[in-house]
């Protein structure tokens, strides 16, 4: 097929554009606070995850699957739906789906079937999608994930029920040019193999869904079934959200489509929960509709109503026989000779899964569950942690290092609105910084200040920053005591309040004393001097 964008009629309707403007005007001031279940309202969320299978070719054709390839450069006759072309099932996609099923504790069906799901979009040349609606490749799974509820505390273990995993084709991509009043079509993605992973509606807020998606990403990357790159569209989430009062029937649900990052999952779901609550409390009804999430405005936007059930006219795919796989009990010599898929062998080749890896890391380094969950949950952070330990000659304490990475580094990056990939601190410099804190050469507060400076000046070492800023530890006890005496003289009311038993006054004096010593004095020594001075 010739390279270039295929053209179709303009798919943007005035209705959607007007609805978009209305949504912006009405809801842009709403906060994105966590909309957890309350006494009055509870939210119920189920999700569908579309995971692109890591395969060199598509589900039913030999076309490539490289990301960001030249437009319409990975399109076969079958992908473009030329008459007479037939699907040929990709063995790699089947094996990846089976390994995913075992990793998610699903039951693999020895016989599964393909169906045609009919709908008409310009980026779907056939007018139907080949999927597994009635008899999918796997069902009845269960996954545990870790929900971090507060920094430093052990995460809460939660459980998700996986309803089914089905194999299906992806569609192409529409690029809308409003200036030219037309849409352009790229079919590179058309026919790429997907696993649709469907959960039961067991989530209550966005934080739970985000935590589960992080776990799912780890699992898929661990077994090599999907690279999990949401920014490239290889992992996309659709969330079905409804609100109801406790004890009452489930409310009308909306579907937020194609959420493309973990952070946006949290924002989109919590926004939609709040939007629905606001609508119901205003006396309005929730409309059953498909919505999208605008990450710049932080709102969900109506795409199309779903009041009428769409007739997809499912029918068995006539060009594909039932997909049959086998286990040790059903595998015969004849089947071995034709290299039939043995699911038990695939199960035996599964690598160490994330939870087992977490346990091993906890045992190896003596770190907490919270630390290991965050280290593994942030892409590249565990590798950075181990790189620092391997390069460190002064034997940095793994638990202290993990704390500085999971708490201090991520906090500073969040302030800058940076991701971990934007971290500018070399593993060598980070290890040196933690060693300075570990040896008490600098205070923890000064260490955090050095960390912020390192992000701004990555070419400098921690020691160079400390020298240039005069942040070395203050060890002159007479000078420390003199500064504390001055603080007590300047804050007589706080001294009086402390002697009356008001503990907040002591905390205030500690803060003032630390400021007076420029945070360079040992906090424990400052507290001891304060107590001694206040008791005299």
Radius of gyration: 29 Å
Give the class from helix and strand content and strand pairing: alpha+beta
What's the story with the biggest beta sheet? 9 strands, mixed
- Report the count of strand segments: 17
Write a brief structural summary.
The chain has 536 residues and is α+β, with helices and mostly antiparallel strands.
Structure explained in plain terms:
The protein has 536 residues and is an alpha+beta fold. 39% of the residues lie in helices and 19% in strands. The chain is built from 17 helices and 17 strands. A 9-stranded mixed beta sheet has the order 3-7-8-11-2-12-13-14-15. Strand 7 and strand 8 (156-169) form a beta hairpin. Helix 9 packs across helix 11, helix 11 (427-438) runs antiparallel to helix 12 and helix 16 packs across helix 17 (523-535). The longest helix is centred in the middle third of the chain and has 20 residues, at 262-281. The model is unreliable at 1-37 (pLDDT under 50).
Keyword list:
single chain; 536 residues; alpha+beta; 3-stranded antiparallel β-sheet; disordered N terminus
Fold topology:
Layout: E1 6-8, H1 14-27, E2 42-52, H2 91-103, E3 107-108, E4 111-112, E5 115-118, E6 128-131, E7 138-147, E8 156-169, E9 173-177, E10 182-186, E11 193-199, H3 206-223, E12 235-244, E13 254-259, H4 262-281, E14 289-294, E15 299-305, E16 315-316, E17 323-324, H5 333-337, H6 343-348, H7 354-365, H8 369-377, H9 381-391, H10 398-415, H11 427-438, H12 444-456, H13 462-469, H14 477-490, H15 492-499, H16 503-516, H17 523-535
Parallel strand pairs: 13-14
Antiparallel strand pairs: 1-10, 2-11, 2-12, 3-7, 4-17, 5-6, 5-16, 7-8, 8-11, 9-10, 12-13, 14-15
């Amino acid at each position: 097929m010739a390279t270039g964008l295929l053209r179709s009629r303009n798919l943007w309707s005035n209705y959607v554009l007007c609805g978009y403007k209305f949504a912006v005007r009405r809801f842009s001031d709403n906060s994105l606070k966590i909309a957890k279940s309350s006494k009055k309202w509870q939210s119920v969320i189920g999700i569908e995850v579309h995971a692109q299978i890591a395969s060199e070719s598509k589900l039913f054709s030999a076309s490539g699957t490289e990301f960001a390839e030249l437009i319409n450069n990975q399109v076969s006759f079958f992908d473009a739906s030329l008459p007479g072309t037939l699907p040929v099932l990709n063995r790699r996609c089947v094996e990846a789906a089976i390994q995913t099923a075992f990793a998610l504790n699903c039951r693999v069906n020895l016989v599964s079937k393909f169906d045609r799901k009919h709908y008409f979009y310009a980026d779907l040349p056939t007018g139907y999608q080949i999927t597994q609606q009635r008899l999918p490749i796997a069902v009845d799974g269960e996954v545990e994930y870790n929900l971090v509820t507060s920094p430093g505390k052990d995460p809460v273990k939660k459980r998700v029920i996986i309803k089914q995993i089905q194999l299906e084709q992806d569609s192409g991509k529409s690029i809308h040019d409003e200036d030219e009043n037309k849409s352009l079509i790229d079919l590179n993605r058309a026919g790429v193999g997907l696993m649709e992973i469907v959960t039961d509606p067991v989530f209550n807020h966005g934080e739970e869904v985000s935590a589960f998606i992080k776990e799912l990403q780890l699992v898929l990357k661990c077994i090599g079934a999907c690279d999990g790159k949401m920014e490239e569209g290889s992992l996309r989430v659709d969330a079905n959200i409804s609100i109801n009062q406790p004890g009452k029937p489930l409310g009308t649900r909306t579907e937020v489509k194609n959420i493309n990052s973990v952070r946006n999952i949290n924002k989109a779901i919590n926004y939609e929960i709040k939007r629905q609550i606001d609508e119901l409390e205003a006396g309005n009804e929730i409309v059953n509709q498909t919505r999208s999430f605008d990450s710049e405005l932080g709102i969900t936007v109506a795409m199309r109503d779903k009041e009428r059930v769409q007739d997809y006219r499912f029918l068995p795919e006539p060009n594909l026989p039932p997909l049959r796989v086998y286990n040790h009990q059903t595998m015969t010599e004849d089947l071995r000779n034709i290299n039939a898929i043995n699911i038990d062998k695939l199960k035996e080749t599964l690598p160490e899964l994330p939870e087992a890896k977490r346990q091993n890391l906890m045992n190896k380094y003596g770190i907490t569950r919270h630390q290991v969950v965050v280290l593994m949950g942030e892409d590249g952070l565990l590798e950075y942690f181990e790189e620092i330990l391997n390069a460190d000659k002064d034997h940095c304490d793994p638990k202290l290092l993990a704390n500085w990475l999971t708490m201090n580094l991520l906090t500073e990056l969040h302030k800058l609105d940076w991701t971990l990939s934007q971290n500018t601190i070399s593993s060598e410099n980070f290890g040196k910084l933690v060693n300075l804190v570990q040896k008490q050469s600098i205070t923890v507060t000064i260490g955090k200040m050095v960390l912020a400076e390192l992000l701004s000046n990555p070419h400098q070492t921690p020691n160079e920053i400390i020298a240039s800023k005069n942040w070395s530890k203050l060890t002159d006890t007479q000078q420390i005591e003199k500064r504390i005496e001055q603080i007590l003289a300047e804050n007589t009311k706080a001294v009086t309040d402390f002697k009356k038993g008001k503990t907040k006054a002591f905390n205030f004096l500690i803060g003032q004393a630390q400021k007076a010593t420029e945070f360079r004095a040992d906090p424990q020594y400052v507290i001891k001097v304060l107590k001694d001075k206040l008791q005299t």
